[in-house]
Design a protein that fits this description.
Layout lengths: L40 E2 L5 E3 L2 E2 H8 L3 E5 H15 L3 E6 L6 H10 L2 E4 L2 H9 L7 E3 L6 H10 L3 E4 L2 H13 L4 E8 L2 E4 L2 E4 L9 E2 L4 H11 L3 E7 L3 E2 L5 H21 L5 E3 L17 H18 L6 E4 L3 H4 L3 E13 L3 E6 L8 H5 L6 E2 L8 E7 L8 E9 L7 E5 L20 E5 L2 E6 L4 H7 L3
Parallel strand pairs: 4-23, 5-6, 5-16, 6-7, 7-8, 8-9, 9-12, 9-13, 10-14, 13-15, 15-16, 18-20
Antiparallel strand pairs: 1-2, 2-3, 4-17, 10-11, 17-18, 17-22, 19-22, 20-21, 23-24
Helix pairs in contact: 2-9, 5-6, 7-8, 8-9
This protein binds pyridoxal-5'-phosphate.
Pyridoxal-5'-phosphate binds next to helix 10.
């Protein structure tokens, strides 16, 4: 078995260290409820269903690849976050994870608020009827036009990200005769990654205004002086796909420290703090995410404790989960095109999509699992790498997984936990058409984002 004959580097011919991949699961037909949407199950005929509809039927009606979204699961997760945080806190769904008008309506109905970070996301939110005062506008480089649209629309808050933006938003609001509610995004020197976090004095990144060096305090000073702004709180977002709550603990400690300094200097207690999003989900069976009620309890306790020791009234908390709501609710359905065994190494399974519908594996080295969903199989497991159809050897969807050894062209396979940052980051690389999003609920399926067509492509290309 050759494991060292490929000098081309990891993107070209990855040479796996021994034991990199885990052993095959005991039952390849089983679907771990941790990584699959709530209503997904395998029927007696072996076909996997979601919301009561078989994937073979979905593939026939809507084609592949397709993102299949479990609406009941989405609503249940949104509701679970809302309920967990109760009426003394606000849950803002981070639209960048996946935004469509149907999703906006579901969020609205379930009582969640919405984060947007571009004019396009704002337009989508408003066009689907999200009340502007429940929208927060984020971003490190909002254009003056975007700011003006947001202020005119009456968004509930703009999260200020730089000294220039403090002045820009104040000026625009004032010229429109408005006073805009704002938060200031600060960086507290906490970098959280999955199972660990690093607390430092400084944070080397483009977002926010550093707490270190008195910059955040200076930003507050300036915002408080400007008539166009109503400063309602401080914002901190520490990372993504986080499992360990201790990063939030350090962040909350530092944010509350700033609130205390503000009280001491200005004699005011800011009424809100936003702790951002970033809560992790299970992409594979190895991940163990927390439930919303555990997260709510932990965050509320941390903030309450910190405020008590600083002798501050506990501010209203907001959180901004994106992935944790939509991530687990969708899977990507692909048809197998070719199956190419490389002796002694692995089998390459090519699907009809790839890095254009899921860039996370190439971009972040993300882990995914995959299952044969159009039938059950008792064949021996084979080690596979699921790859796309793009002209790029880094076009990998699932790095290492096991599928039944009798896998053949025409089989349908599905990659779970693709609800977040897949459709929203999808591209047209190789002029591949972006897949539709099909929402399924109680035996009914409907397209909420249609498949792109060649006509769509050609319409943009004006010759
Ligand atoms: C990306 C982002 C989120 C959402 O992150 P998830 O990992 O999807 O929960 C929330 N708030 C801010 C400011 C973000 O940039």
């Amino acid at each position: 078995m050759s494991r060292s004959a490929h000098p081309a580097g990891p993107r070209h011919a990855d040479v796996l260290p021994e034991g990199h991949y885990s052993a095959p699961p005991a039952d390849l037909n089983a679907l771990d409820p941790k990584v699959w949407a709530q209503t997904v199950e395998r029927g007696e005929d072996g076909v996997v269903t979601v919301g009561g509809i078989g994937v073979t039927q979905l593939a026939e009606e809507y084609g592949t690849p397709a993102y299949v979204l479990d609406e009941a699961d989405f609503r249940a997760r949104a509701r679970a976050w809302r309920t967990a945080f109760g009426t003394d806190a606000d849950v803002f769904y981070a639209g960048k994870a996946f935004l469509s008008r149907a999703v906006v309506r579901w969020l609205n109905e379930e009582g969640l608020n919405l984060d947007v970070c571009s004019g396009g996301e704002l337009a989508t939110a408003l066009s689907a009827g999200m009340p502007a005062d429940r929208i927060a506008f984020h971003g490190n480089n909002k254009s003056p036009e975007e700011i003006e649209r947001a202020v005119r629309a009456g968004v509930g808050r703009i999260v200020l990200d730089s000294f220039q933006e403090i002045v820009r938003v104040a000026h625009i609001a004032q010229s429109l005769g408005k006073r805009q509610r704002v938060q200031i995004r600060i960086t507290v020197g906490v970098e959280a990654h999955t199972h660990e976090f690093i607390a430092t004095a400084h944070e080397d990144q483009k977002f926010g205004i550093p707490l270190a060096g008195g910059h955040a305090a200076e930003a507050v000073r300036r915002a408080l002086q400007l008539d166009g702004l109503e400063l309602i709180g401080i914002h901190s977002h520490i990372g993504s796909q986080i499992f360990d709550m201790s990063g939030f603990e350090v962040a909350a400690h530092r944010v509350v420290g700033l609130l205390k300094d503000i009280r001491d200097e200005h004699g005011i207690e800011l009424p809100e703090i936003d702790l951002g999003g970033g809560l992790g989900i299970a992409y594979t069976s190895d991940d163990d995410p927390r439930e919303p009620h555990e997260i709510a309890k932990a965050l509320t306790e941390i903030v309450t404790r910190e405020c008590e020791s600083a002798k501050l009234r506990t501010p209203r908390i907001s959180v901004e989960p994106g992935r944790a709501i939509v991530g687990p609710t969708a899977f990507t359905l692909y048809e197998v095109g070719t199956v190419k065994p490389l002796d002694g190494l692995r089998t390459y399974v090519s699907v009809d999509g790839g890095m254009s519908d899921n860039i996370r594996t190439a971009l972040y080295d993300a882990e995914y699992t995959v299952a044969l969903v159009s039938r059950a199989s008792d064949a021996e497991p084979m080690l596979v790498r699921v790859v796309g159809k793009h002209c790029e050897s880094g076009d990998i969807v699932v790095k290492d997984a096991f599928l039944p050894g009798d896998l053949a062209p025409g089989d349908l396979i599905a990659v779970p936990a693709t609800g977040a940052y897949c459709r929203s980051m999808a591209s047209n690389y190789n002029h591949v058409l972006r897949p539709p999003v099909v929402a399924v609920r109680e035996g009914e399926a409907r397209v909420v984002v249609r498949r792109e067509t060649e006509e769509d492509l050609l319409r943009l290309d004006v010759g």
